[in-house]
Design brief:
The protein is α/β, with parallel strands linked by helices and 342 residues long. The chain folds into three domains: 2-210, TIM Barrel (Alpha-Beta Barrel); 226-263, no CATH class; 272-336, Arc Repressor Mutant, subunit A (Orthogonal Bundle). It is built from 15 helices and 13 strands. The strands form three sheets. It has a seven-stranded mixed β-sheet with strand order 1-2-3-4-5-7-6. Helix 6 (131-141) packs parallel to helix 8. It holds the Pfam family HemN_C. It is found in: Cytoplasm. This is Heme chaperone HemW. Probably acts as a heme chaperone, transferring heme to an unknown acceptor. Binds one molecule of heme per monomer, possibly covalently. Binds 1 [4Fe-4S] cluster. The cluster is coordinated with 3 cysteines and an exchangeable S-adenosyl-L-methionine.
């Protein structure tokens, strides 16, 4: 990792880095010394702002007092904790090592040690989960010392335990009605406790939106480091090969890690601009779209926008086009309308 940092930083000497994110996988399995060496390399090779948001994903089981104190000493100032549920039965079903008590203690321990910018993840549509389970998780979460919460539905991947159970028809998942009830719960309960929704899956107290994640949704540039890491620089999207051994072999031989590069056409980027901005509360800034792509958005999507407005899935106000409450619940359908037919 340090060798890759040293090689890739040469192309970014004139850039100021104002967010760093350790995530994807479980970075808290790094030892304190490894984390220290990586942070030192980042500061040595990149121009990092004094006000940078530096986030680290952590598992509750890894959040010992010693580990947290070291992370804070190194400049980590935001945590994203994989809590997932308050229901211990569900946590066991999704192979989490912690229980709800350990998760609560870990979050409170981090706050006590000076981490006052903490996000947690919750999941819904888990096998066997009921709306009451999810409601209990939400009401438990809002009383933790957090200021950001991400809520994700379970995605069934082929080859996983749940994927195999689904193929055999024995995976008990919530019904559509139950899923809709869970969705309504999070949209109602979290704002009541001061966590406003600012993106489809993200809720934050005022002033605590994830600055790093906003870069993805705003099509800003970001550099990924490590196996399978993704970058978006200019009009290209890049992804390092996921193989750890190949990564080690190439980088330690003085070569950049193998990567796949996708050069985005204007069409590709325009579609992505619409998808990603529509995920956010503010939606598509219409003047910015026109300045980027030369024509008003109706030039490409006039009929689709009219149809979505008529169905009350999209709304336009103060120069922004954004999804309504019902539009966000049917996000995939809305996004599909912004795919340009060849």
């Amino acid at each position: 990792m340090i060798r890759e940092i040293e090689m890739k930083s040469a192309g970014f000497k004139d850039r100021v880095c104002d967010t760093i994110y350790f995530g994807g996988g479980t970075p808290s399995t790094l030892t304190g010394m490894q984390l220290s060496e990586i942070m030192e390399a980042l500061y040595k090779n990149f121009h990092i702002s004094d006000q940078a948001e530096i986030t680290m994903e952590m598992n509750p089981c890894d959040m010992t007092e010693e580990y947290l104190a070291n992370a804070r000493r190194l400049g980590i100032n935001r945590l994203s904790v994989g809590v997932q549920s308050h229901n211990d039965y569900l946590l066991k079903a999704i192979d989490r090592r912690h229980d709800s008590k350990a998760a609560e203690e870990a979050v409170k321990r981090a706050y006590r040690l000076g981490f006052h910018n903490i996000s947690i993840d919750l999941m819904y549509e888990l096998p066997g989960q009921t709306p009451l389970d999810f409601e209990k998780s939400l009401k438990w979460a809002v009383h933790l010392p957090i200021n950001h919460l991400s809520v994700y539905s379970l995605i069934i991947e082929n080859g996983t335990k749940f994927g195999q159970m689904a193929e055999r028809g024995i995976l008990k998942r919530p019904t559509e009605e139950e899923s809709w009830e869970m969705y309504q719960m999070m949209c109602r309960i979290l704002p009541h406790y001061g966590l406003e929704r600012y993106e489809i899956s993200s809720f934050a107290r005022k002033g605590y939106r994830s600055r790093h994640n906003l870069k993805y949704w705003d099509l800003s540039h970001y550099l990924g480091l490590g196996p399978a890491a993704c970058s978006r620089i200019g009009h290209a999207r890049k992804e390092n090969n996921p193989g750890v051994r190949l990564y080690e072999k190439e980088v330690l031989s003085g070569n950049l890690p193998p990567e796949e590069v996708e050069n985005l056409s204007v069409k590709d980027e325009m579609e992505e601009y619409c998808f990603l901005h529509l995920r956010t509360r503010e939606g598509i800034p219409l003047q910015d779209f026109e300045e980027r792509y030369g024509f008003p958005i109706e030039h490409w999507f006039g009929r689709e926008i009219a149809m979505l407005k008529e169905r009350k899935l999209l709304k336009e106000s103060l120069g922004h086009l954004f999804m309504t409450y019902h539009g966000a619940a049917l996000g995939n359908f809305v996004f599909e309308q912004f795919i340009i037919d060849e």
